[in-house]
Amino acid sequence: MTVAVSPEALPVSTAISPGSWPALVLNADYRPLSYYPLSLWSWQDTIKAVFLDRVTVVSTYDKAIHSPSFEMRLPSVVSLKTYVKPSRNPAFTRFNVFLRDRFRCQYCGHGEDLTFDHLIPRSKGGQTTWDNVLTACSPCNLRKGSMTLKESGLTLGRLPFAPSVQDLHANGRLFPPNYLHESWMDYLYWDTELEP
């Protein structure tokens, strides 16, 4: 089965706007729950979590909400009060395969009209596993068909592998959303090299 994915089909967090007032959600250790898609909540969900005492407000926008007897600045960064243990092994999903492969065809390197391909075709006993599924563009996938890599004449940039959560987080940082509020920066890039 082949399903093409275009950049427009990526998660909503990549197309956020400053006027929607999203909040960056951090785990109790002040690290984002995820980088891609970036862990963001709508301002409505964030306010609800504040009132239910599930989060600590770390930073706020200049924008406030009002009621007749209450005013509150909208949170821009919140931290969960209870630590959520990250999964040790990422889920084997189509999206995570694309993220592992950095949204590039593993045969030619193009990043458009992406599908996934079985390195060893299913017709030849190939399994649908991390070690046998990779990102491919439609033309390369069609060219390879049900042949082995050697039979197709294609070359492989990198063998498929089971990524760690850290691998996917590192790759996720390569695809930031179109909008990043200044209050988020200290929490998104805490482990990047500092400028002199």
Give a quick rundown of the structure.
By secondary structure, the chain is an alpha+beta fold.
Question: What does the model show?
Answer:
It is a single chain. This protein has 196 residues and is α+β, with helices and mostly antiparallel strands. Among the domains are: 23-86, no CATH class; 94-162, DNA Binding (I), subunit A, CATH 1.10.30. Helices cover 20% and strands 20% of the residues. The protein contains 6 helices and 6 strands, in the order ββαββαββαααα. It has helices at 43-51, 94-100, 138-144, 149-152, 165-172, 185-188, and strands spanning 23-26, 40-41, 55-67, 70-80, 114-118, 133-137. The strands form 2 sheets. A 4-stranded mixed β-sheet has the order 2-1-4-3. A two-stranded antiparallel ribbon has the order 5-6. 22% of the residues are buried.
Descriptive labels:
nuclease; 20% helix; hydrolase; NA-targeting_endonuclease; nucleic acid binding; alpha+beta; DNA Binding (I), subunit A
